[in-house]
Predict the 3D structure of the following.
Amino acid sequence: MKNARAVSIALACMIGGCATSVETISVNNAGMSAYQNRTLVAVTQAAPGMTPMRASSAAFGAIGGLAMASAARNYASEHGVVDPATHIETQLTALLQSRYGIQTVGDRLDMSAVTERTDYPINSDLLYVDAKTYMWMQRYFSSNWGRFRIDYSTLIQIIDGATGRAVAQYDCRKFMPETPDDAPTLEELEANNGALMNQMLMRMADECLAEFAATSLPAS
């Protein structure tokens, strides 16, 4: 039921739009200088199921929503689709090293099995690098049910290990392509072990990281 509720919320957000968003937090140069002796630790978070949205299921309301929720549980693994959050964290770690001289990198922290509200472990020696995929969806165009786009949302954070609070934060929401004229078919998306879906997700992940760097981090 938890997965079904998450998918229902995601569907409502994508169809009707979500009224709330996470506050963007920016850190200044003075703030970043205080973290130069910290150890960077990337965080593994569990992504929700990737929702394969179908017109045939959406037409049946709540029952169709439950069917999509069920399909979402294994869709990504069955079709070779990879959560791009780890890629964002790897690139962000490299950016923090090159831009601010934070050289030490520790072992990845696995929080994939904890509940959503679990706090980060308090450790004043650490600076957590966390990209949390909270929605990814394969969605048909209402004007052309045979063409699909990929929607992706992630929360990118840098967490002060001393306080467990974000010192930099950006909520990124992307989708591509914009029109059905440029959109692939389902067969094209799923071909070659989801190669096209992974390519699209990686491109959106890179765009999200670039936006995070521009809005939440000082240039030097």
Q: What stands out?
A: Confidence is low (pLDDT under 50) at residues 1-19, 58-64. Helices lie at 2-16, 29-33, 55-58, 61-78, 85-100, 186-216. Strands lie at 39-44, 51-52, 104-105, 109-110, 126-141, 144-160, 165-176. The CA atoms of residues 57 and 67 lie 7 Å apart.
